[in-house]
Amino acid sequence: MSFNNKVVIVTGSSSGIGAAAAIAFAKEGANVVIVGRNEEKMKNVSKKCESFGKKPLVIKADVSNDVDAKRMIDETINKFAKLDILINNAGIAEQDEITSDSFMISFDRVMNINLRAAVYITHLAAPHLIKTKGNIINISSIAGSTNAGSTALTAYCTSKAALNHFSRGVALKLSGHGVRVNIISPGPVRTDILDNLSIPNFNWDTFKETTPLKRYSEPEEIADLILFLASDRARGITGSEFIFGELYAWYTQFNTNSVDNNKMALVTNVRARPSTLALGRVIFIGSVVTQLPNRLDHGGVKMSFDNKVVIITGSSSGIGASTAIALAKEGAHVVIVGRNEKKMKKVNEKCESYGKKPLVVKADVSKDEEAKKVIDETIKTFGKLDVLINNAGVADWNDITSDDFMKKFDAIMNINLRAAVYLTHLAIPHLIKTKGNIINTSSIAGSSTLGMSLLSSYCTSKAALNHFSRGVALKLAEYGVRVNVISPGPVRTDIAESMGADIMTWDTAAQTTALKRVSEPEEIADLMLFLASDKAIGITGSVFISDNGSLVK
Ligand SMILES: NC(=O)c1ccc[n+]([C@@H]2O[C@H](COP(=O)([O-])OP(=O)(O)OC[C@H]3O[C@@H](n4cnc5c(N)ncnc54)[C@H](OP(=O)(O)O)[C@@H]3O)[C@@H](O)[C@H]2O)c1
């Protein structure tokens, strides 16, 4: 993820997420432009960045002021002659109710900084980003799709919802120029933003209790995702929103429905929920509540999987095979699962070349006894399980008016959904022991018909897998076990073969995407490793889309 000589503007980089991102980019060799209003804080960030070898450009600017915003772009181009990456991160949160006299003043201020500044800067930066085929990341919030637990945050929520949809539109427009635009929506992150809200009796330790994972994120975690998305590893990702706490949003809403939440209700009222969960714990599993650490030694958080045990179903080819190979390269003990022995042998040889002998289990995962064999043999061989990747899947045409519709429907659902459900059920006791995680391979077909009615059985199976994953993520959060979903768009794999010969070619598939390309399986494997690693310690219940912008079309 080297950013050597890339020019990166990070707005709002005097503190919090922006500061962490600026420092992380500088560490990877970028020429960083630090932007903010507080000179003292910017000086500190600049010093940190400079310690990695390059002097950043520090611009004092109020991004909601058009003159300042333009000066920021002009000074960047004057100094570095180009722009590769724009991180629109500057933002404020203010509490004010729609019924209060001061509401419009605060609404305008929040909208001007959180939305209008990002829009104007994007407008100014676009010609430069087109030249470098660069990319934009807009830092939004889970408040963009929830009420953030407080009616007093309406302006903030509105600004972030608008930023999300603006980003999708711009992603579509700029995809024609090879420029990617993505969104990161964090849940609670320990920065100055909440401290600045002056919530009575607010304290981060109490606040932690309001989240399913019993932790808030550190700014460095968001910076990690920013760097991943800004890098070439994410070359197939545009128009996507990456949520750091989708579950948190869901959880908070659940708990604030009946509450008079004049102020930050989430701080006080969510405490009822963990006690309900505690009862469930005792009765159903009898395990001890676990907490994920808040502070990670970030210098040490790598995507290493040394001695981790990872099951990847459907790893005889395509995405599963690439993921198994990538994990083996990072030191994992991989369990290769599929039906085609010849293909599995090839994947096995590739994995073994990195030094560890994989376990190969021939199994049709849609048969309960064979699924059970996968888990049993894994535990027998390695004694533990750290990550389960439910990736096996088939796509097939199915016509609701045809006589054999139900037969095909059942077959698709059994492989794409039921097998993942049963394997999850079997794997849970082992994953609780290791505080492991699960990734389910879904598809953009889980949230779109893709305009193909004959694909509806496949779409149904993937929609079910998405929502099953959210439910399990909520249940397992109390044990520190994360569950996430990756939804690819078109990826060049053998899946076409399972659909018969009469499907569209990969070239035609590429035309259905905004970036006019299909992904290679290795790109999805990269995202799998990120999500399965400790870099994603704050991510659970999220659906990560990597589709070359198909859904924004
Ligand atoms: N390629 C795309 O465009 C795309 C887009 C979105 C989502 N996806 C999803 O990505 C996942 C992987 O697909 P892929 O594109 O990599 O296709 P692929 O190359 O055809 O791989 C599918 C894998 O699933 C395995 N599998 C299927 N049925 C199985 C069963 N009953 N038991 C055990 N293994 C089974 C296959 O192994 P055996 O044949 O050896 O059993 C194979 O390893 C699927 O869930 C798919 O829905 C793919």
TrEMBL record:
GO biological process: lipid metabolic process
Domain Ketoreductase residue range list: 308-498
Sequence intervals crossing the membrane: none
Pfam families attached to this UniProt entry: adh_short_C2
InterPro entries in alphabetical order: KR_dom, NAD(P)-bd_dom_sf, Sc_DH/Rdtase_CS, SDR_fam
Gene Ontology MF terms: oxidoreductase activity
Source superkingdom: Eukaryota
Keyword Oxidoreductase: yes
Entries under PROSITE patterns matching the protein: ADH_SHORT
Entries under NCBIfam families matching the protein: PRK07231.1 (NF005559)
Protein name: Putative short-chain type dehydrogenase/reductase y4vI
Organism: Papilio xuthus
Taxonomic lineage: Eukaryota, Metazoa, Ecdysozoa, Arthropoda, Hexapoda
